[in-house]
From TrEMBL:
SUPFAM superfamilies: lambda repressor-like DNA-binding domains (SSF47413)
CDD domains xref list: HTH_XRE
GO molecular function per UniProt: DNA binding
Keywords: DNA-binding
Lineage: superkingdom: Bacteria
Protein name, UniProt field: Helix-turn-helix transcriptional regulator
Classification via Pfam families: HTH_3
Database matches in SMART domains: HTH_XRE (SM00530)
Amino acid sequence: MKTRIQELRKKNKLSQDELASIVGVTRQTITSLEGEKYTASLVLAYKISKYFGLSIEEVFDFSEVEGINDGSI
């Protein structure tokens, strides 16, 4: 899943370690989210979005998630 985490983190001059500490995960989790190798849980997505003052949809791109845009959900 595509995210704006790296863009937002850099804009706010945060390292991966700093953001990880703020939201209670490891740096590896932030790396995996930024590299689109991991999908955040709802709780983690909420924490990250809330930290940046944005909605979950403003941080995470759901356009490629199966069922989201085809009307089946």
